[in-house]
Amino acid sequence: xxxxxFSFPIINMPLVWSSVAIIPLLILGSAVLSVEVEINVGWxxxxxxxxxxxxxxxxxxxxxxxxxxxxxxxxxxxxxxxxIPLEDIKKAYSPWAYSKPSxxxxxxxxxxxxWYLNSSNRGLLANTKEDLDTFWSFLTALEKHMAKLDNKKIxxxxxxxxxxxxxxxxxxxxxxxxxxxxxxxxxxxxxxxxLAVLFxxxxxxxxxxxxxxxxxxxxxxxxxxxxxxxxxxxxSLRERMKTEGELFLYTNDTxxxxxxxxxxNTDNPLNIELFQYSQANADMRKFLDSPRSAPxxxxxxxVDSAVIRLHKGITAYSDSxxxxxxxxxxxxxxxxxxxxxxxxxxxxxxxxxxxxPLHDTTQLNTAFAKSFPGINILLxxxxxxxxxxxxxxxxARHNISKERxxxxxxxxxxxxxxxxxxxxxxxxxxxxxxx
Length: 435
Description:
- The model has no long low-confidence stretch (mean pLDDT 80).
- The chain has two domains: 4-156 and 166-191, no CATH class; 244-262 and 297-431, no CATH class.
- The chain has helices at 13-36, 41-62, 129-153, 171-181, 191-209, 215-240, 278-289, 364-371, 375-384, 402-418; strands spanning 4-11, 64-71, 75-78, 82-85, 89-93, 102-107, 112-116, 247-251, 257-261, 297-301, 307-309, 323-337, 347-358, 389-395, 427-431.
- The chain contains ten helices and 15 strands.
- With 435 residues, the chain is an alpha+beta fold.
- The strands form four sheets. A five-stranded antiparallel β-sheet has the order 13-12-14-8-15, with helices on one face.
């Protein structure tokens, strides 16, 4: 059988674990110094941040190791580990406390080898889709070779006995399980971060709070500030909207409304109740610091109460035209997978954002036709699926006048009729009318 070659970068785990371990040590050392020694806290924090930045640079520079693998029916030849006879492999598994995907092989001579990659794009070190595809190809090829070896090791049939015997899973089966689970991450919060928080509260709690912190009180305070900032922001927005001009909406969603709002992040990725309002409070404070100049974004509130921020879309990010029509296609009943690289079954409603830049020399029919590849096929979905909604938005602050928007409606209707969509289901709304 011909040899197969695979090349992909793997994570330098010794360096990663060193970086993780330094976090609780730095915080513990800072806590002890701030309590026991009269040293300016600013100097301590500055020193700790400098060390953290140094480890971050090391991670970015040396966090990946290049791996070259040649695989045949007898050996794995690795640039990192040398020759590994397939017959010496007695166990294959994916360590739970490491990034995913990963593979660790235990050999007959008590030696072990491992390859670690990272499919998540939230960290400093993340493999590309091409790296991950190559790694999965390696796993699949190795599984096929091990299956042939495992078949040779199956003992001949023995006399049936009444005593129940447990047959261990062969290595090929273990590899198949790893492939089936994909790159789903089941362990996300580093141990160093947890230890750091515990050390900080334990060592510095009495000095910072005077007593053990009242978590319930901190949460109530955060919620109070959230409601206070929200009311202040609403008052500021009412004043701001007097100068923002009219908003035009053309859609087949009869319940849709259009608003200009600042971008407020309400995510709580760690699902910690104490931090429920932290990011939203920070974003609202930022808006209230400069309510007259802070950016506002158009948001749709759809028939199913979904809130969608409109933007140019990937086809027009480089366009700097002053005149922009924003469009969105949305179907709450058509679900698509969030990620196709793992076995995660999470889905989200179908949604596409795009825009139509309007230049003085551009004809509207040409601008519409070039705005989105296969626009006629996309618009035809409004005929095929009753839940499929189309939204077109124009803003006076983007130099879209009432007359210009009416012309755009005419052109969109022409395309809808071409796709046999009844434009009578569409209606026009004007938000933020000016006196």
